Amino acid sequence: MLSTVTSIPLEDVAKALGTPPWYQLYMPPTWDETERLVKREAAGCPVLAWTIDLLAGRNTETATRFTRLDTRDCLSCHATSPTAANTQSNRSKPMFAGLSGGMNPPEATWAYVDRLKKLTKMKLVLKGVDMAEDARLAREHGGMA
After folding, report:
1. What does each of the 145 residues of the chain score in pLDDT, given as a tens digit?
2. How many structural domains does the chain have?
3. Residue-range definition of the domain harbouring residue 134
4. 114 in the Ramachandran plot: left (φ > 0), alpha (ψ -120 to 50) or beta?
């Protein structure tokens, strides 16, 4: 599976492998940018794996256990926040060419699963389902979890 944040374009990896890999989507903040990334299915990827465990508003017990205990403001020691640094770094990656570099729209809901299924012919796998309720919703929306 090749991630959206890869340092080598999806199409180049598919060509080098001689077979297209699965494509792991870290969804950009706008639907327009999401469409631009997903339309790269022309590389022949059979599966789109949308990583949902980092989306905002999720009740993730595992993530909560690993939250920072240090409550100081990162900007007191660093020139940019970790989030801003990641966005800047992503812009230089080939899959994000011409895109904002941001990831994980805060307004994403289960309706996004329906939209993705309509957008592509790739099979959709939801990566990061960590609660029984999410597994039930994934099944209801036709995503494999």
Report:
1. 988 888 888 889 989 999 999 999 988 888 999 998 888 766 789 999 998 876 655 555 555 665 666 676 666 665 555 555 566 777 778 887 878 887 878 788 888 889 999 999 999 999 888 778 888 888 888 766 5
2. 1
3. 2-140
4. alpha
